[in-house]
Write a structure and sequence with these properties.
156 residues; two-stranded antiparallel sheet; alpha/beta; 4-stranded parallel sheet
């Protein structure tokens, strides 16, 4: 097996008990397996820290960091400190992935700086809207100014 991890998934967690299990299971059930998951408990006061520790105990690809509350950016930065992946993915603790999501994304990349993919939004368990793009894009150059951002993201 390759010693280099291809993808690091950083999940900031703060009082996410109602939906965290769904998020974790959606990562665990991926068809793509060359990843690590860094769960950053950002000072949760519910059962989220125990849920994170349980998942880390079940699968060595999952690691849990516990820190005092500092907000989502602080939690993401903490995860970046230990990430080993060639690519970084941020996933919110109330998100869930389709089983083929990581495989579809990682089949698209070959050295790009950023990958952009669409998603579906659900509210109260019902499909609310599709957010474009409908396919995965990969870019070699990050947008450098507002005109580049509009050029890249304006077509969605």
């Amino acid at each position: 097996m390759n010693d280099k991890i291809r993808l690091s998934i950083i999940v900031p967690v703060y009082n996410a008990e109602p939906y965290l299990e769904r998020c974790l299971q959606s990562i665990y059930g991926q068809e793509y397996h060359d990843y690590e998951v860094i769960l950053v408990d950002d000072g949760s006061t519910d059962a989220s820290p125990v849920m994170c520790d349980n998942m880390s105990g079940q699968d060595s690809r999952f690691v849990t960091i516990h820190k005092s509350n500092g907000g989502v950016s602080s939690a993401r930065n903490e995860g970046l400190e230990i990430a080993k992946g060639e690519y970084i993915m941020f996933l919110d603790s109330d998100d869930a992935l389709l089983p083929c999501a990581l495989e579809d994304i990682m089949e698209t990349v070959s050295g790009e700086d950023i990958v952009i993919c669409g998603y579906a939004e659900y509210r109260d368990g019902r499909h609310f809207k599709e957010v474009r793009p409908s396919r995965t894009y990969s870019l070699f150059i990050l947008p450098q100014n507002e005109a580049d951002v509009k050029r890249f993201f304006g077509e969605f």
